Amino acid sequence: xxxxxxxxxxxxxxxxxxxxxxxxxxxxxxxxxxxxxxxxxxxxxxxxxxxxxxxxxxxxxxxxxxxxxxxxxxxxxxxxxxxxxxxxxxxxxxxxxxxxxxxxxxxxxxxxxxxxxxxxxxxxxxxxxxxxxxxxxxxxxxxxxxxxxxxxxxxxxxxxxx
Length: 162
Description:
Elements: H1 11-15, H2 21-49, E1 54-62, E2 65-74, H3 75-86, E3 93-96, E4 99-102, E5 108-111, H4 118-126, H5 132-138, E6 154-157
Parallel strand pairs: 2-3, 2-4
Antiparallel strand pairs: 1-2, 5-6
Main location: cytoplasm
Domain LysM: 108-157
Subcellular location: Cytoplasm
């Protein structure tokens, strides 16, 4: 008995069994691209399921970044699509390249923190906690219940007319 030394990863090269590091790297890259394409397809399906109409919608995911292209009817639809994509697991950045047919004032965005409620957020942005339904409506259909928001979630805060 004793200790034997071998050339690491030589087996695939010498005996034709297993995979080389380059083959494993290529397979990992292919798996990553497939996962990104699947994530993009799920996001597109979610946008469709939420009945957010965007002409020629294209979502491309690369790493933790998603790029969105297409033409939305209005600013609210565009912003909701950005939120659907940005609030998806694994996405840290959204590169919004969409256009808008009917230009409107842009909404602000708020990242929910622990202890936030729609009322507290309405008080912060509008000076009146009772305006929380405005925020709830602006985030439908992504929000189903005004009490179900979570830390890290990003919400649309629409511009209010004075």
